[in-house]
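Q: Convert this sequence to structure tokens.
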Amino acid sequence: MPKSDPAKLWSLNYRLLMSVISSVAPDIAALGLETKELFLLAAIDEHQYPAELAATLCMPKPTVTVNLKRLEAAGLLRREIDPADLRRHRLLLTPDGRKAMSRGLALLSDAFGARLGRLSDTQQASLRGLLEKLN
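A:
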């Protein structure tokens, strides 16, 4: 079997993910969110500082800042002074933010689950193992 072209594999993976995201973008928008904002909300529990979010999500810091300001204005997150370092603000989801995040992630999960449903249980397990190995 010939060796796979890494660029082709990357392209296939990217197209799959973008297809799933695009398929639910209108439903995510109905929650009052852009897709980037959903990913920001989903990462806040593990990365409570804007710079960490930017690095983790590979997003430019100004983009993160603009989106965080919008999410804060919408009441989906709040900033508070970090008690361990009074010079820093950490981010916390509000109950509304957590609800919107959960709904948005469920939309993505359902759409991706439909794609995964094209694979057998064995194929899904193999895919998971391969993705874990790559990560």
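The helical segments are 6-30, 35-43, 50-57, 61-73, 95-116, 121-134.
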